[in-house]
Amino acid sequence: MKLIRTEDAVGQVLCHDITQIIKGVTKDAVFRKGHIIREQDIPVLLRVGKEHIYIWENNENMLHENDAADVLRAICQGEHMHASEAKEGKIELIADIDGLLMVDLDGLRRVNSLGEMMIATRPSGFVVKKGEKLCGTRIIPLVIEKEKMQRAKEAAGEKPLIQLYPLKKKTFGVVTTGSEVAKGLIQDTFTDVIVEKLGEYGCTMTAHVCPGDDAAVITQTIQNMLANGCDMVFCTGGMSVDPDDRTPLAIRNTGAQIVSYGAPVLPGAMFLAAYMPDGRPVCGLPGCVMYAKRTIFDLVLPRLLADVPVTAEWLAGLGNGGLCLNCDDCHFPNCGFGKGV
């Protein structure tokens, strides 16, 4: 710190708040710590009795907190988002669209491990709405070494730490397996659930077939839906390990690559994820999707709509946080379900 005449302080950085007290009127900061003094600020400082003030000495190797915060902003900011104005070393990123928020968690940890700076985000892998905050960044000290901010850039890597992927309004087909449904012995109540969930994202069902239990017929049904332009296919029924459950075999026989048959999520352990060679997903949905409030399907669906790959590694990581408590008053996604790291 350095004490200088107020008249000589233009362009300098305040080391402390400047408070004005008027009895019965105000007691508040006229200028905050870190404020860069302007010519028009000099009369105000003199009126509150500050003929001398403490400032940070200029140092070409240091950055002011707001300038350093902008470095963090650049590290984080991907497409479809905008930044707030820098204030007291803080910048926030705001969503410009509804989309799937994805955070580079490894890069985030590396930057936050450097100290004297922080980035706090919303949970990765969940849908956010236009206008919502995505993250907040802050520089802890008033000034920070330029070299440390360079290290932050290197720790983050070349790509932005935060990405916001648009959700596409896709078409889908539903294959309702089971001879009991095909013969009309029981009513299909599963498809309505799928239509409702995807309808929330503006998606449209363009095909629905009940082919019974014959694996070859199920396979052909899936292939026909894809040939007719469905962006996604969901198969219901026949997803357990019973010998007469043919759906996993039928999906495999379409030529789809199975990502995983099974997921460490309850409800939803018997979920099957697969992709056709052209990248279109074919999924086998366990029966819990029909009756449980929230399941593996609620975690997977935003990825399918944003074209973010569902991988075996990601599915395996859902075990931490993958237990839904089935609360009477469901607050998903504002709960711990699916938020393990």
From TrEMBL:
One Pfam family named in its UniProt record: MoCF_biosynth
Keyword annotations: Magnesium, Metal-binding, Molybdenum, Molybdenum cofactor biosynthesis, Transferase
All copies of domain MoaB/Mog, residue ranges: 173-306
Top-level class of the enzyme under EC nomenclature: transferase
Catalysed reactions, as listed in the record: adenylyl-molybdopterin + molybdate = Mo-molybdopterin + AMP + H(+)
Pathway listed: Cofactor biosynthesis; molybdopterin biosynthesis
Needed co-factor(s): Mg(2+)
Domain of life: Bacteria
Enzyme Commission code: 2.10.1.1
Recorded family membership: Belongs to the MoeA family.
Function: Catalyzes the insertion of molybdate into adenylated molybdopterin with the concomitant release of AMP.
Protein name stated in the entry: Molybdopterin molybdenumtransferase
Organism: Butyricicoccus intestinisimiae
